[in-house]
Design goal:
Blueprint (H helix, E strand, L loop, with lengths): L2 H15 L4 E3 L1 E2 L2 H9 L5 E3 L1 H7 L11 H14 L4 E4 L8 H13 L4 E4 L14 H16 L6 E5 L2 H4 L4 H14 L4 E3 L6 H11 L3 E4 L9 H6 L4 E3 L3 H20 L11 H9 L8
Parallel strand pairs: 1-9, 2-3, 3-4, 4-5, 5-6, 6-7, 7-8, 8-9
């Protein structure tokens, strides 16, 4: 543990304790992380989907190995001065001890936070861990985080909406409240997009809430989410998917029309070289 990581961990904790809202966009490699930092964001998250796509893999459980995900997370954390939180999927294992080990690996990668899901496609019917096991997993993650010599922010996710639970709001609230009590610092219920439900969730859980935007449709603005009491906003893999959308449109233009108008929006080579050369020292371990 370095003093830099200790400082980043404290800064990330402070963002969750301070008044107001903050946006934590998600990067999939060191270059995208540096550009997000340069835009002025106070923290960066990783996206397991974006990392998988960048490696030519699908966003399926098991396709992106823990080692590969954390290698990229290490590059991202080492490329920026701001805190980094890792999308650690389901902790890369069902058992509480698997989740605890992943938290320690995340810390070794240089990150100061992680999110853990309570869903695995390979776990029983429906994939959602039962609540008791889910709480044990969060407790194990929180204990691992507490053992670190620097502040570590644990985010616990309830996947009820994405897994098709019959009563997603009620079950999500029950789960994230229990995760809060088990030691989670931030709570996250992906799949909620409407203002009324987000506002209800924030009031029910009485803890910092993360909302993801960019999945589909017309997302609420940051100011609207702040009015609802949301603490943190993430964008998941949406920026990575938008980037791949640009690649696909450019490829189709070249193939079908033989033109290259896609290049009108590119950043000049010299500008990118100056930008990345100016941060070269951050690549050193």
């Amino acid at each position: 543990m370095s003093e830099v990581q200790k400082s980043k961990g404290a800064a990330f904790k402070d963002l969750h304790a301070a008044d107001g809202i903050f946006v934590m966009p998600n990067a999939w490699n060191a270059g995208s992380a540096r550009m997000l930092e340069a835009a002025g964001f106070a923290a960066v998250g990783t996206t397991s989907a974006g990392i998988a796509f960048g490696l030519g893999l699908p966003d399926y459980e098991g396709a992106l190995a823990r080692e590969a995900a954390l290698e990229e997370a290490c590059r991202i954390a080492g490329a920026v001065r701001v805190p980094v939180s890792v999308d650690a999927e389901n902790g890369y294992g069902h058992a509480p001890e698997d989740v605890a080990e992943t938290i320690l690996w995340v810390a070794d990668a240089g990150a100061v936070g992680a999110s853990i899901e309570d869903f695995s496609a390979s776990f029983g019917a429906g994939g959602l861990y039962d609540r008791a096991l889910s709480v044990e997993r969060v407790e194990a993650a929180a204990a691992a985080a507490a053992s670190l010599p620097f502040p570590f922010t644990l985010t616990a996710r309830a996947e009820c909406y994405l897994s098709g639970h019959a009563n997603p709001f009620e079950e999500s609230v029950a789960r994230v409240v229990s995760y809060r009590d088990a030691g989670a610092d931030c709570l996250y219920v992906p799949g909620i997009a409407d203002a009324e439900t987000i506002g209800r969730l924030v009031k029910e859980v009485e803890a910092p809430v993360n909302v993801v935007v960019g999945l589909a449709g017309n997302p609420l603005s940051v100011s609207q989410l702040e009015d609802l009491g949301v603490k943190r906003v993430s964008i998941g893999g949406s920026l990575a998917r938008a980037t791949f959308g640009l690649v696909r449109r450019a490829a189709e233009e070249i193939r079908d029309r033989g033109t290259f108008t896609f290049s009108d929006g590119q950043v000049p080579d010299a500008e990118l070289c100056r930008f990345f050369a100016g941060r070269q020292e951050l690549s050193a371990p």
